[in-house]
Amino acid sequence: MSDKLRVFWFRRDMRFEDNVGLYHALSGDYNVLPLFIFDKYILDELPKDDARVTFIHDELQKMRSYLQDKYGSSIATYHDTPENAFKKIIEDFDIEAVYTNRDYEPYAQKRDAEINALLAQNGIEFHDFKDQVIFEKTEVEKNDGGMYLVYTPYMKQWKKEFDKIDFKTYPSEDLLDNTYENSRLPNVSLSDMGFERSSIKVPDHNLDKELIKNYDDTRNIPSIEGTSRLSPYLRFGVIGYRKVVKKALSVKDEAFLEELIWREFYKAILYHYPETQERAFKPKYDRIQWRNDEEEFEKWKKGQTGYPIVDAGMRQLNETGWMHNRLRMVVGSFLCKHLLIDWRWGEAYFAEKLLDYEMSSNVGGWQWVAGSGVDAAPYFRVFNPYSQTDRFDKDKKYIKKWVPEFESDKYPEPMVEHKLARERCLETYKEAVKN
To answer: Where in the numbering of this chain does the Photolyase/cryptochrome alpha/beta domain appear (predicted)?
Structure first.
């Protein structure tokens, strides 16, 4: 083995198993220094009891302990800007190359370009790999080129492309004896970073075959555990994406697989149209005259709208950091269309609260309910919270769980009448998109 080291930079891939970039880093004549950076640019914007920071920190400590016990190795953790962290690493270690897995969000692409330039100035190579998706960038396109802007044809083409590929795994877990033998690498605690342990815990995920088989029948009923709770684990790569896809393929019903394809669809949209994190995909929707009433926004955030299904969803989010996907659509539609509050306000609140926050899916979902995104609900489709309750929570089990004062004098009256809100919405939207 050479005296020089390779660095493997963990980001959205916090696992040893079937990790593409880690596999390639470990497959050579260099020992590998595992690295994680708690990025100040990101963390400085977060509340000090952020549940995601607790989750990431705990997962890293498990990974560090595993390497220390089995291989006398560890993971170096830093709390800094990526540039400063890499300057320290270059100073403290003799680095041959840095390996990592690709991230497609706008900030991540800018960050990686800057780190690549810094490394190049120091004669260090930068290698990145595809790991968190099956297809990336331009790998699923129309026959004449160009990105699909409607999900169904994208999904059909995704399946055709999948049939052509060699779907393999990368046994990085078998090569960990090539990690750098030093169990006392730098490590930062939550308190070192100015954070405290969150009371919100990420619940266990369920990848059981029965759940996947019944997924299409149960996924819209918020009162039952009909979803996998995989999203935070996929978001941070604690579980490998190929493992989940493989499990989905083992069941004949393809509803679960098609939800995973939605995830890739939104990633591709954000990659091709990074401006959509701030602007409507359909520019005329940026002409909507939002009411943006701050008092009404506060009631929505606290689950005090007087619409039980909306309030239940918001209270679940505030208490647990998670919200059932059906409810994400209902509460999003209510904010944008009943209250005429800018979808970006809702997107930012979800970004602060959701354990599984992922910019591509969140922006895609919010622009969908607002009517302004790709393959979006038409603007004249306004979710009726009462009919949504009748369809998906008829016995009010979900509502009663999260809104205990429901049907009592303590529960507020609806903040706006549904029919009035719908008519106001249609008039406002129609005026914005008429030309």
So the answer is: 4-134
What CA–CA distance (Å, rounded) separates 152 from 261? 10
pLDDT tens, 353-394?
999 999 999 999 999 999 999 987 788 889 999 999 999 999
Please enumerate in sequence order all residues whose Cβ is within 8 A of that of 272, keeping only pairs 6 or more positions apart, or say none. Answer: 147
Angle, in degrees to the nearest 10, between helices 385-392 and 308-320? 70
Residues sharing a CB contact under 8 Å with residue 47, sequence separation 6 or more, in sequence order:
352
Q: How far apart are CA 32 and CA 26, in angstroms?
A: 6
From 284, 272, 336, select the one nearest 310 (Cα to Cα): 336
| 264-296 residue pLDDT tens | 999 999 999 999 999 999 999 999 999 999 999
312 closest CA partner among 429, 222, 432: 222
d(CA 124, CA 174): 26
Kindly calculate the radius of gyration of the chain based on its CA atoms and give it in whole angstroms.
23
3-class secondary-structure state, position 261: helix
Judged by DSSP in three states, 270 sits in: helix
